[in-house]
Design brief:
Keywords: Adaptive immunity, Disulfide bond, Glycoprotein, Immunity, Immunoglobulin domain, Membrane, MHC II, Signal, Transmembrane, Transmembrane helix. It holds the Pfam family C1-set. It is a single-pass type I membrane protein. Its main location: membrane. The chain is α+β, with helices and mostly antiparallel strands and 242 residues long. The chain has two domains: 93 residues, Class II Histocompatibility Antigen, M Beta Chain, Chain B, domain 1 (Roll), CATH 3.10.320; 92 residues, Sandwich (Immunoglobulin-like). Helices cover 26% and strands 34% of the residues. The chain has three helices and 14 strands. The strands form three sheets. Strands 1-2-3-4-5 form a five-stranded antiparallel sheet. It is globular and about 55 Å long. The N terminus and C terminus are likely disordered.
Length: 242
């Protein structure tokens, strides 16, 4: 019943297109979503977000790095079409509220929150911290970053909510940073179903090469050489006495 309620709201508020090619086995997903104060338009290929509409900055965004082939999507009118679809979506949302006015809103808190660096940490080298939150419903979540206890907004970004197979959502927030030893970062998530925000902490650590085996081998070699030297000394002394 829980899953059916989620899917009912999802179908009415979000319109998605899913296609699978038998020849190349690729999966496309297009989502249009809206609320009274927010909207979403996103295109994904094989589970990777390729394009989304930023209705605040009024432009389309391709979140993939520059070195990745972005292909021919989207077409030049994709953002304008996304804006037009928002009007249709809000009309559908208004009708769905009338139809489901007595149905309580299903709310699920995030089931998982993790924070980790995108690349191996090297002091002084630019990197990204990722805060991945999943299992929540409805979307979206709000994510806040801190560095050494101070709020950070510069260099932060967040993708649009991405649907999971069970009807819940996941989102990833990113923080661009330069690792310095001793710095501590935190990612805090707020959601309608949470009584208290969730926070995860990450501090800068650099892996040091292990010296245990080298010391052990060096010590063994030293003891071996001492044994040979001692044996040679007693052998010479023995010959002198005979």
């Amino acid at each position: 019943m829980k899953m059916m309620m989620k899917m009912l709201v999802l179908v009415l508020v979000l319109s998605g297109v899913l296609s699978v090619s038998a020849d190349s086995q690729h999966e496309d997903l297009a989502i249009t979503g809206c609320s009274d104060s927010d909207g979403e338009a996103m295109y994904a290929l094989d589970g990777e977000e390729k394009w989304y509409a930023d209705f605040i900055k009024q432009r389309g965004v391709e979140p993939q790095p520059d070195f990745i082939d972005h292909g021919s999507y989207p077409d030049p009118g994709a953002y304008q079409q996304a804006v037009a679809n928002q009007q249709i979506c809000r009309g559908n949302l208004k009708n769905s509220r009338k139809f489901n006015k007595d149905m309580p809103l299903e709310k699920d808190p995030p089931s998982s929150l993790v924070i980790y660096p995108r690349d191996d940490v090297e002091l002084g080298e630019k990197n990204h911290l990722l805060c991945h939150v999943t299992g929540f419903y409805p979307a979206p979540v709000k994510v806040y970053w801190t560095k050494n206890g101070e709020n950070v907004t510069e260099g932060t970004s967040i993708n649009v909510p991405f649907p999971n197979k069970d009807g819940s959502f996941n989102q990833i927030s990113r923080l661009e940073f330069i690792p310095q030893l001793g710095d501590m970062y935190s990612c805090t998530v707020k959601h309608l179903a949470l009584k208290q925000p969730l926070t995860r902490i990450w501090d800068v650590e650099v892996k040091q090469p292990s010296i245990g085996p080298a010391v052990f081998c060096g010590l063994g070699l030293t003891v071996g050489l001492l044994g040979v030297a001692a044996g040679t000394f007693f052998l010479i002394k023995g010959n002198e006495c005979s």
